[in-house]
Amino acid sequence: YPAVYRPRSVFFEKITTIQENITQPVLLLAPDGIPLRALYFMEKQPNHIWRINGCFLVALEGK
Question: Can you tell me the distance from the alpha carbon of 27 to that of 61, in angstroms, rounded to the nearest whole number?
């Protein structure tokens, strides 16, 4: 996941719901210059703090 931990650039998109999961989509420019979208599924903890519950990378076709 080099695009996630060493991106050239990052752009946070509007929070959405995917399959009943609160999701933070993030546009990333990978170190090799390939654009990707990371989907961070979020989960509210018992102490009311939001934490990442998973991350999926999606290729941006035709961009």
Answer: 13
